[in-house]
Amino acid sequence: MINRLTIILFTILLSQLSLSSLLAQFQPGAKQIALSNSDVAASDDAFSLFGNPAGLSRIESRQFGIFYSPSPFGISELANGYAAINQPTNFGSFALGAMNYGFNLYRETRIQFGYSKIIEEKFLFGISAFYQTLSIKNYGTHNSVNLSLGGIFMLSNNLAIGFSLHNPLRENDYSSLTSNFRTGISYKPINDARIHLAVFKEINFPISISSGVEYDILKFFSLRFGIQNNPNTYSAGIGINYLFLQLDYALNSHQDLGLTHQIGLLINFSE
């Protein structure tokens, strides 16, 4: 019997897409995925390095984060993990991260460097560069270099707009790195709640709209929900903040591929 992994691999080869393109709309971070990545204007942790690097400037002290998705769509061969560390300085915030994705037949690895700075108090700008390796058994290895850009503009203390641009240096039609753009708005109607809305566009795919809501029901406990179209997905998650630790969990449901669980941990180091 042909299993789901074989079907996915065959479909990707026919459409000349990589496995990473299948997940391009879901950037790492359990909080981010619980919100269907609608929080591009509210990026504020170490995983901003991979999403909107402008958000690195919002981190007040050194922060280390790890993210793991053990079995996307119920397929352990698609397991992926990310790690990132951010260091704020008087000259801006610097970040370093890494990614590992796939299994022995198909694997992608990445090293990524980022920088973010606050400009004129209300505008945050970030840029990151990465080196990525794609290895397919019996087909060799392909190396790529590309960029990510991001910005956040604070319209007020409760309202922000943001954007991120990924992989603008597209090499060719067979590259595993597809160019994509996301822009959105985040609003804080009350102290304990945040509402997000974002629009995502990837080359050769229709526009996707996502929205998310997060609510701090307790000082250390948050609930999150998100929804997205093209493809239709629903997500939810929780966040637990205690002292210098933040533990996040997300569950995402894809219209065709089923459920995916993610977990993330952030550690804040006092200066």
SSE map:
Layout lengths: L3 H12 L3 H4 L7 H5 L27 E8 L10 E10 L2 E11 L3 E14 L3 E14 L3 E15 L4 E8 L13 E11 L2 E10 L5 E11 L2 E8 L4 E10 L2 E10 L3 E12 L2
Antiparallel strand pairs: 1-2, 1-14, 2-3, 3-4, 4-5, 5-6, 6-7, 7-8, 8-9, 9-10, 10-11, 11-12, 12-13, 13-14
Q: What's the structural domain tally?
A: 1
Shape: globular
Strand order of the largest sheet: 1-2-3-4-5-6-7-8-9-10-11-12-13-14
What oligomeric state do these chains adopt?
Answer: single chain
- The CATH topology: Porin
The overall pLDDT, averaged over residues, is 89
| Order of helix and strand elements from N to C terminus | HHHEEEEEEEEEEEEEE
Distance between the termini: 56 Å
| Beta fraction | over 45%
Name the poorly predicted regions. 10-21
Let me know the number of strands: 14
Category from helices, strands and their pairing: mainly beta
Report the CATH superfamily.
monomeric porin ompg
Question: What is the percent of helical residues?
Answer: under 10%
Please describe the biggest sheet, giving its number of strands, its sense, and whether it closes into a barrel.
14 strands, antiparallel, barrel
Brief descriptors of the model:
271 residues; mainly beta; 14-stranded antiparallel barrel
Q: Would you write up a description of this structure?
A:
This protein is mainly beta. The N and C termini lie far apart (56 Å). Helices cover 8% and strands 56% of the residues. The chain has helices spanning 4-15, 19-22, 30-34; strands spanning 62-69, 80-89, 92-102, 106-119, 123-136, 140-154, 159-166, 180-190, 193-202, 208-218, 221-228, 233-242, 245-254, 258-269. A hairpin with a 2-residue loop joins strand 8 (180-190) and strand 9 (193-202). It is globular. A 14-stranded antiparallel β-barrel has the order 1-2-3-4-5-6-7-8-9-10-11-12-13-14. The chain has one domain (4-269): Beta Barrel (Porin), CATH 2.40.160.40. The longest helix has 12 residues, at 4-15. The relative contact order is 0.18. The protein contains three helices and 14 strands.
